[in-house]
C-alpha cells in the first residue's frame, strides 16, 4: 500500500517503480480506479481498464473478457494463464491507483472485490500475480468489507508517500532557474518549502504560478522576496483553487457531510503548523480529514498534524467562513466623509463576534504556555495566536468580503540562523475596494520581548507590501494588562504603526481594550479605552 495526500506525487512514484520492475523483467499493469464504473458494469469495466495499459496490453489484452470475480481469478491463475498461451513463469505486479474510490462503491460489490483479492493473497502460489499494490489517500489503510473486518493488504507493508525535502525543492527550482534564465532569491525558495511542507503538488503549483503570473511583473530576471510576498497576498489562494484537486478538497469540506469533521478541526487543530495532536475521542473525523489531505498521520497511532500551512489557510479562508457564517450585523465603519476603513472600529465588533466556545476551550485544546502572570500564576495555558487569527479571519471574511474587500491570511516562519531561533507569526491583510491596504499582525499573551520584536518586524513586512496601515493586534490573558500596556516608540508610531491590546477573561465574556496610535494633528500619541461585556 502506498498512501499520501492528494497531488503529493504518488502516481509519479508508482510510474518510476514500474519502470524499475520492468527492467527486472516483471510484467506490470497500472489501472486507475478513477476510470472504473460502479454497479453491474464493474467487472467488465475493470477488465477493460486492465487491458488498456500499454506496458502490458500485449499480455492482458483479453482482460476485456472478464465479467465476474470468477473470471478475474481464473484469468490470473497459473493454469488459466498457461491455457491462454502465456508463460506460467511470468511475474505480474498489479498497481491500482485512486483506490480510495472503492469507498464510493456499493457495499456488496466492495465486499466481493476485497474478498476476491484476499483469496488471491491467501493462495498466492497458485497465481502469476506476485503482488498487488494499491495507491490512495490515508483512507486505504482502513480497507474492509461488510462481512469481514480483515483487509487483504498487509498493513505492515503500508508505505507513506514522502513529501519533498528541502534538497529536492532546491534542486527543482535550480532547474527552473536554468530553464527560464532567471534568478530566484533563496528566501523565496525557503518560503515555498515552508508554506507547502514539500507537498509535491503544491511545490509544482507554486512553480507554475511563478511562470504564469509572476514573470510578467519582473523588471529584471530576478524574483525577489518582496514580489513573491505581494503575489502571495493578492493571488496565490485563487491560483491554488484553479487546481482541480484543491477545488475538490474545498467543495468536499463544504458539503453537509463534512460538518462534524470541521467542528473537530476548529476544536483541536487551530494550532501552529508542525504541532502534533493526540486524538482520542473523534478518530473518525481525524481520519476523514487525513484522507482529504488536511491532516497527516504521525508515527504514533492516533497522532495527527496539519499537512501544510498553505492547506491550513486554504481551509480557514475558503471553507470555515462558509460553514460558520457568523459576523457583526452592523454597517462597515468608514471614517466620516471618507472611503478609508476605520480599522479600530472594525476590530472591536469583529472580536466581539468570536466564537466563545472556541476561545474558552482553546486553553485546553490549542494552547501555549504563558510567560507572564495569568490569574496570578506563571506558566498557565492560554490560547495561542493561531486560534485568534482563525477566528478573526473567519469573521472579517464573512463581514467584509461581500462588500468586495479581500481578506488574506499569511503564516510566516523567520529562522535566525545565528541564534537558531524560530519565530512563527501570523498576519491578516485587508485590501479594501478603495485601494487601502491594512496589515494586522497578531500576537497572543505576549511578553515584552515578543512585542518589542514584533513592533519592528511588522513595519518591515508592511513596507514590503506597501501597506497604508500596520496594526499590532494583541490578544492577552495577562493580569491587569490594559493598566500598563507596552507601546512602540514614538518614531515607530509616526510611521503608521497602530497597536490595540485586547484583554479577555477565560470564558470570553468580558473584554478590556486599549489602543494607541500617533495623532499627526496633535503631534502626540493618542489612546482609546473601552470595556465590553459579551
Automatic annotation (TrEMBL):
InterPro entries in UniProt: P-loop_NTPase (IPR027417)
Protein name, entry field: P-loop containing nucleoside triphosphate hydrolase protein
Biological source species: Glomus cerebriforme
Amino acid at each position: 500500500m502506498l498512501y499520501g495526500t492528494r497531488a503529493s506525487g504518488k502516481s509519479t512514484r508508482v510510474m518510476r517503480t514500474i519502470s524499475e520492475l520492468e527492467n527486472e523483467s516483471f510484467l506490470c499493469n497500472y489501472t486507475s480506479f478513477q476510470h472504473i464504473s460502479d454497479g453491474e458494469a464493474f467487472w467488465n469495466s475493470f477488465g477493460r481498464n486492465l487491458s488498456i495499459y500499454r506496458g502490458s496490453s500485449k499480455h492482458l489484452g483479453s482482460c476485456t473478457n472478464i465479467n465476474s470475480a470468477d473470471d478475474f481469478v481464473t484469468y490470473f491463475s497459473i493454469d488459466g494463464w498457461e491455457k491462454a498461451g502465456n508463460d506460467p513463469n511470468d511475474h505480474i505486479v498489479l498497481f491500482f491507483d485512486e483506490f480510495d474510490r472503492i469507498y464510493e462503491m456499493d457495499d456488496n460489490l466492495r465486499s466481493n472485490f476485497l474478498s476476491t483479492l484476499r483469496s488471491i493473497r491467501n493462495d498466492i502460489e497458485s497465481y502469476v500475480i506476485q503482488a498487488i499494490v494499491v495507491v490512495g489517500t490515508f483512507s486505504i489503510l482502513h480497507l474492509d468489507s461488510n462481512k469481514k473486518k480483515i483487509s487483504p493488504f498487509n498493513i505492515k507493508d503500508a508505505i507513506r508517500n514522502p513529501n519533498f525535502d528541502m534538497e529536492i525543492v532546491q534542486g527543482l527550482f535550480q532547474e527552473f532557474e536554468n530553464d527560464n534564465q532567471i534568478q530566484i532569491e533563496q528566501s523565496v525558495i525557503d518560503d515555498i518549502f515552508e508554506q507547502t511542507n514539500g507537498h509535491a503538488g503544491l511545490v509544482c503549483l507554486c512553480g507554475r504560478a511563478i511562470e504564469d503570473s509572476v514573470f510578467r511583473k519582473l523588471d529584471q530576471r530576478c524574483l525577489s522576496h518582496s514580489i513573491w510576498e505581494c503575489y502571495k497576498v493578492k493571488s496565490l489562494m485563487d491560483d491554488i483553487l484553479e487546481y482541480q484537486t484543491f477545488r475538490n478538497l474545498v467543495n468536499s469540506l463544504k458539503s453537509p457531510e463534512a460538518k462534524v469533521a470541521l467542528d473537530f478541526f476548529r476544536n483541536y487543530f487551530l494550532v501552529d503548523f508542525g504541532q502534533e495532536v493526540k486524538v482520542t475521542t473523534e478518530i473518525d473525523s481525524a481520519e476523514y480529514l487525513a484522507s482529504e489531505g488536511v491532516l497527516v498521520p504521525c508515527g504514533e497511532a492516533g497522532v495527527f498534524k496539519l499537512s501544510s500551512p498553505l492547506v491550513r489557510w486554504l481551509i480557514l479562508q475558503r471553507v470555515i467562513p462558509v460553514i460558520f457564517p457568523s459576523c457583526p450585523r452592523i454597517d462597515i465603519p468608514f471614517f466620516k466623509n471618507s472611503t478609508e476603513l476605520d480599522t479600530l472600529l472594525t476590530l472591536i465588533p469583529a472580536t466581539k463576534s468570536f466564537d466563545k466556545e472556541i476561545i474558552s476551550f482553546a486553553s485546553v485544546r490549542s494552547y501555549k504556555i504563558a510567560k507572564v502572570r495569568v490569574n496570578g500564576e506563571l506558566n498557565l495555558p492560554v490560547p495561542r495566536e493561531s486560534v485568534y487569527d482563525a477566528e478573526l479571519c473567519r469573521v472579517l471574511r464573512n463581514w467584509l468580503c461581500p462588500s468586495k474587500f479581500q481578506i488574506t491570511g499569511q503564516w510566516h516562519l523567520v529562522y535566525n540562523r545565528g541564534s537558531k531561533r524560530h519565530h512563527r507569526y501570523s498576519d491578516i491583510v485587508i485590501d479594501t475596494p478603495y485601494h487601502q491596504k491594512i496589515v494586522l499582525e497578531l500576537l497572543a499573551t505576549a511578553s515584552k520581548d515578543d512585542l518589542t520584536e514584533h513592533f519592528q518586524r511588522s513595519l518591515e513586512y508592511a513596507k514590503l507590501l506597501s501597506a497604508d496601515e500596520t496594526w499590532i493586534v494583541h490578544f492577552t490573558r495577562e493580569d491587569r494588562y490594559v493598566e500598563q500596556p507596552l507601546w512602540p516608540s514614538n518614531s515607530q508610531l509616526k510611521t503608521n504603526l497602530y497597536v490595540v491590546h485586547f484583554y479577555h477573561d477565560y470564558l470570553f465574556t468580558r473584554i478590556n481594550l486599549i489602543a494607541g496610535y500617533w495623532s499627526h494633528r496633535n503631534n502626540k500619541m493618542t489612546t482609546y479605552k473601552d470595556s465590553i461585556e459579551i
